[in-house]
Specification:
about 0% helix
Length: about 120
Amino acid sequence: VQLQASGGGLVQAGGSLRLSCATSGLTFSRYTMAWFRQAPGKEREFVAAIRWTSTTHYVDSVKGRFTISRDSAKSTVYLQMNNLKPEDTAVYYCAGDRGVILSSISLPNEYDYWGQGTLVTVSS
């Protein structure tokens, strides 16, 4: 199983980025996929998740600004990030697992597979 995250970069506050996470070696359509982020000196934080049913979940701080989506034909999950803020600066990781239960969807330990991370820097 491989997860390859991409799309990070440097953007000004108010700008947009789209992250991608291409997967291989898993039955993508049956997996819950998620994005987490980790800022320097902070714990890894849940950002968004999309279940195999395509229902979505977000941390409150990104609701209305970020959108998670999936393309089963490409086995890829996306994170569209709009109206970025300096506090969104972090390394963003994609993660996936087949057996995530709804009540634990925001917990990193629930996910067996992780991408390598992509850095998002938002300047003020």
